[in-house]
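G., the chain you wanted modeled:
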Amino acid sequence: MQIQEIIHSLEQWAPLDFQESYDNSGLISGDPTQNCTGVLCSLDCTEAVVNEAIAKGCNLIVSHHPIIFKGVKQLNINHFIGRTLIKAISHNISLYAFHTNLDNVIDGVNKSLADQLQLTNRSILAPISGKLDQNGQPIGAGILGELPLETEAHSFLQWVKEKFHLSVLKHTPIINKQLKTIALCGGSGSFLIDTAKAQKVDCFITSDLKYHEFFEADNQLLLVDIGHGESEQYVPDLIVAYLSIKFPTFAVLRSLVNTQPVTYLK
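Predicted structure as tokens:
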């Protein structure tokens, strides 16, 4: 089976034209006509992940975040991007990024968040007008859903901390003590705060919120920042599950490398 067959399957799930204009999803490097020896799925593509692919005999790495995101003017071993790409190319390993197009489908990145919190009655938080996925469902940013039962806010925050294995989380003051409607956005979701308020959600969970953005909650909802990598930690498992169903006799592995660049002093 060729690498392009794996890519074609991924792009049936979340086509490249679903990605944001600033993004760089798709085949970053490699030969799509090469026979695939195995797929390694990760959140980020780092030199350590490439080393893992070499050790496990995988010649395709599917990462959520693109190794090349901004313009690259030089490709050498003096920077982590150059080292990663040079090592991958020298070992005939193709690199594929599955980023904001996977963010924008209802069974993509935000599903992995919603599943952990057992949300029901799910819908896209900010649908893109006129765009539907292969199942006729709206696409767009974030997910809106409901908790199975109305939950006390402090208990809910503790549950979020446990479910996402967090040593810390940041949140605005608790206004409504009982929570039912929850909005989620894996990765950086501050652009959805106004949408979440307009939808009258009780709590919006995302990451990468700046100090002044917390004021935007404006006593209308509980705003929670769980960290970027933490909000997307289950994405590799989501991709593995999808590909394992599509190619049940083929080696699809989840990377064991922790690529999280942020640590916390407890």
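Residues 104-225 form a domain with the Udp-n-acetylmuramoylalanyl-d-glutamate--2,6- Diaminopimelate Ligase; Chain: A, domain 1 fold (CATH 3.40.1390.30).

Shout if anything looks off.
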